[in-house]
Amino acid sequence: MSAFFKRQLADYVEYHRNPWNGAMHVLGILTLFFAAILPLTLVPVHVLGVHTTLAPILALPVLIYWLLLDAAVGAAILGFAIVLFAAAAFVVGHASTAMVWSVTVPLIAIGIGFQIVGHRVFEQRQPALVDNPSHLLLGPMFVTAKLFIALGFRRDLAAIIQSVPPHTQRGPSSFTEEHQAGPLRRS
What we know:
This protein has helices spanning about 5-15, 20-40, 55-70, 70-95, 95-125, 130, 140-150, 155-160, 175-185, and strands spanning about 45, 50-55. The protein is mainly alpha-helical. A hairpin with a 2-residue loop joins strand 1 and strand 2.
């Protein structure tokens, strides 16, 4: 696990202490990922004799990023992604383009809804990505890290994720403080 990933995960955790918010994120992230790849699976791509779709090609950079942040967590996400790519291919193979889009749009709304409910109702705090847009890419890492911890793996991740009690007072993220301070106020 890289030092960069440790810092990012520690910052992300501050916005995701409530277990119900975590559950909302599991549902929301899976729903949003599936909604993102579903229409991309409609677009076939043939390169160097390989037949695929636009979905894995566009997902490849972020999958590589996750693998670089943490090989084990990234590999688990890759496994989940493969299952979701297969599910998207099944749906696309058995539905019209109009039907794919009529499923995609509500899935996006549902996925965003899970995230909003998690933060507004359970966490009672704005989403982390409002203060730090890079948190958009950390959600899947966080959810998978929590799964590893629940299964008894990765005590190093547990030390980061479970280091602060859930009911402590939290301020803005370190990212926000650094970027709002400006060059004159930094020491």
